[in-house]
């Protein structure tokens, strides 16, 4: 059980962030509450942006959007990959075709698919979710397929098949329990990658600009010249949050795999 | 076996090529609105003009006719017709990509090698100092580079080397005043390339560090290592000669798989360093909503990835004794 504890810890941290973002912000993130481009003070711990809006409040509100996008899109990628991976593990000509299709998709980098999809769909949270969800399923499908095939080779599965167990029965009683750690590790991986991808989409200006997310705050910091004003925390706060949370997810995934 | 292996890889590449063409064909057509609607919505056009534009681009025909024409066009010109760029207007979208392609190819080909070397080197050090503080620092660094967006890494390196230390140029690919072709120009180009290459190498080397370490450590579990120790061969020599060398092949395959990631890293790095490669036009195209250029970019970069992975498969075939002698 030690292996899942890291994943649960990260999820609890995210849940706390979301609860805080629903209940409390020091200032209204959309209203001016100080001088523009203000250096960090006790009133504004992370400083203010070009319109005098408090950046800490933006970060707190942004965690809600970021977690929402990351969670939904990684669940989308995970379930798509899981279903396709499981189908491709059934022996036969169709599974060979599907596995070649997975191999084809896996070489196309997620960034390209994300740019193509989110630029065609236009900037909105839905299009971000579709773009990210559509980018990461091949990795999931590939690992699920490999693990399922190795489970299907095991003697007790063969025994189960010999006494007349159908594919669905084997799926329910043998495959699912045995690949659950792969699914959880993939969930950690896709969560980490979704967080990073969300920031990349926002950084390129393809994100939803109506709702603050960590990526969008970094984007604003970059285009409003935070570096030239010496507002370090404005740039670093979203970057550190994104890499810290996704670092924790990647570590959680590693500890699940190497149990 | 050699030809069979290569044929299978070529078939896989062909399938990828077909899928990319399908995506490029289908995606703009399932979306509400097409480029004629986009043009018509940005300025006042009479109904006849819109209908004429529809006929000109062949959008009034049924979908299967469009697909046949698309496929024939791809076979003749080896690329689909993406139309004209909105931003660089008199140019065709695909030509815009070709103009900026050489810079990215230059940057990426060097960065691929440096990323590979950096990853293998750090992985080797981590496995040499297995389960010590050094190992833990390198492994954490590797995971940290995977979890940090590339542009953050690029920005930090830019700030350290170009803004604070002021030892290397902050952006661009060359100084415009220099004469192209001269020695000083070439040196200038190389100087401008250093920071982007460092950024790409650090940003994408994470998976190579992890994989090198895992491969070496799993090879070291084999029995012949105990024998090698017992004979008295040095630890560094054992690691390089007996653990890393057999592991080089899977690492080369990994370059093929991760080439796309390195390309993505290169694109975002180019944006930060305003390097005149594909990243630059990607950013321009996004800012000006230049869909033909975006689609051409997707197309050309996917083709680049297919070619790169084919080349790596070829290298793999030449190196792997099991396939070479088979």
Textual characterization of the structure:
The complex is a heterodimer of chains A (259) and B (326). By secondary structure, chain A is mainly α. Chain A contains 9 helices and no strands. The longest helix of chain A has 37 residues. The N and C termini of chain A lie close together (9 Å). The relative contact order of chain A is 0.15. Chain B is mainly alpha-helical and 326 residues long. Chain B is globular and about 85 Å long. Chains A and B meet through helix 3, helix 4, helix 7 and helix 9 of A and helix 1, helix 6, helix 7, helix 12 and helix 13 of B.
Give the helix/strand layout.
The complex is a heterodimer of chains A (259) and B (326).
Chain A lengths: L1 H22 L31 H34 L4 H15 L2 H12 L3 H28 L2 H8 L4 H37 L10 H10 L8 H26 L2
Helix pairs in contact in A: 1-2, 1-9, 2-3, 2-5, 2-7, 2-8, 3-5, 4-5, 5-7, 7-8, 7-9, 8-9
Chain B lengths: L1 H29 L4 H8 L4 H10 L6 H15 L15 H36 L4 H15 L2 H15 L18 H22 L1 H14 L3 H9 L3 H10 L3 H25 L5 H10 L3 H29 L1 H4 L2
Task: Flag low-confidence runs of chain A.
Answer: none
Mean pLDDT of chain B: 83
Number of helices of chain B: 15
Note the run of SSEs of chain A as H and E. HHHHHHHHH
Characterize the biggest β-sheet of chain A.
Answer: none
Derived from helix and strand composition plus strand pairing, the structural class of chain B reads mainly alpha
Terminal residue distance of chain B: 6 Å
The global form of chain B is globular
Work out the number of β strands of chain B: 0
* Approximate shape of chain A: elongated
What is the makeup of the main sheet of chain B? Answer: none
Number of beta-strand segments of chain A? 0
How big a fraction of the residues of chain A is strand?
under 5%
Mean pLDDT of chain A: 87
Structure annotation, total helices of chain A: 9
Q: What is the alpha-carbon Rg of chain B in Å?
A: 24 Å
């Amino acid at each position: 059980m030690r292996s899942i504890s890291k994943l649960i810890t990260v999820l609890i941290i995210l849940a706390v962030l979301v609860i805080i973002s629903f209940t409390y912000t020091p200032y209204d993130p959309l209203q001016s509450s100080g001088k523009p481009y203000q250096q960090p003070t006790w009133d504004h711990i992370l400083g203010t942006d070009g319109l005098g809006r408090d950046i800490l409040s933006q970060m707190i509100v942004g965690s809600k959007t970021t977690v929402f996008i990351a969670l939904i899109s990684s669940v989308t990628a995970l379930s798509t990959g899981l279903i396709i991976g499981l189908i491709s593990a059934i022996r036969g000509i169709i599974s060979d075709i599907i596995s070649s299709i997975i191999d084809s998709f896996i070489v196309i980098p997620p960034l390209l698919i994300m740019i193509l999809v989110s630029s065609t769909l236009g900037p909105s949270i839905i299009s971000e979710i579709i773009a990210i969800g559509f980018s990461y399923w091949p990795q999931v499908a590939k690992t699920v397929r490999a693990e399922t095939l190795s489970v299907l080779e095991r003697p007790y599965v063969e025994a189960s098949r010999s006494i007349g167990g159908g594919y669905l029965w084997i799926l329910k009683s043998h495959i699912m329990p045995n690949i659950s750690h792969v699914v959880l590790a993939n969930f950690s991986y896709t969560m980490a990658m979704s967080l990073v991808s969300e920031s990349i989409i926002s950084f390129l200006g393809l994100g939803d600009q109506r709702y603050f997310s960590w990526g969008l705050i970094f984007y604003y910091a970059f285009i409003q010249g935070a570096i030239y004003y010496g507002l370090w925390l404005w740039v670093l706060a979203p970057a550190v949050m994104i890499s810290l949370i996704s670092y924790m997810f990647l570590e959680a995934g590693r500890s699940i795999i190497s149990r | 076996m050699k030809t069979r292996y290569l044929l299978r890889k070529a078939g896989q590449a062909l399938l990828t090529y077909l899928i990319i063409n399908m995506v490029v064909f289908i995606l703009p057509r399932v979306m509400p609105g097409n480029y004629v609607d986009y043009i018509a919505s940005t300025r006042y056009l009479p109904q006849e003009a819109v209908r004429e534009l529809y006929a000109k681009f062949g959008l009034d025909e049924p979908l299967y006719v469009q697909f046949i024409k698309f496929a024939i066009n791809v076979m003749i010109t080896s690329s689909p017709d993406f139309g004209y760029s909105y931003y660089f207007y008199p140019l065709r979208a695909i030509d815009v990509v070709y103009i900026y392609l050489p810079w990215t190819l230059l940057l990426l080909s060097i960065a691929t090698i440096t990323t590979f070397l950096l990853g293998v080197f750090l992985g080797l050090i981590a496995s040499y100092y297995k389960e010590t503080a050094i190992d833990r620092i390198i492994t954490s660094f590797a995971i940290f580079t995977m979890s940090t967006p590339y542009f953050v890494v690029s920005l930090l390196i830019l700030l350290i080397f170009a803004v604070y230390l002021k030892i290397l140029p902050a952006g661009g690919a060359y100084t415009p005043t220099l004469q192209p072709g001269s020695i000083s120009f070439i040196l200038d180009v190389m100087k401008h390339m250093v920071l982007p290459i460092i950024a790409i190498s650090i940003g994408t080397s994470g998976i190579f560090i992890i994989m090198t370490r895992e491969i070496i450590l799993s090879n070291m579990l084999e029995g012949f290592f105990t024998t090698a120790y017992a004979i008295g061969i040095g630890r560094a020599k054992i690691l390089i000669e007996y653990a890393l060398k057999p592991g080089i092949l899977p690492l080369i395959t990994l370059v093929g798989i991760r080439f796309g990631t390195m390309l993505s890293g290169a694109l975002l790095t180019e944006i930060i360093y305003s390097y005149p490669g594909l990243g630059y036009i990607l950013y321009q195209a996004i800012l000006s909503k230049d869909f033909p250029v975006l689609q051409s970019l997707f197309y050309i970069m996917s083709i680049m990835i297919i070619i790169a992975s084919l080349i790596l498969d070829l290298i793999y075939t030449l190196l792997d004794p099991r396939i070479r002698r088979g």
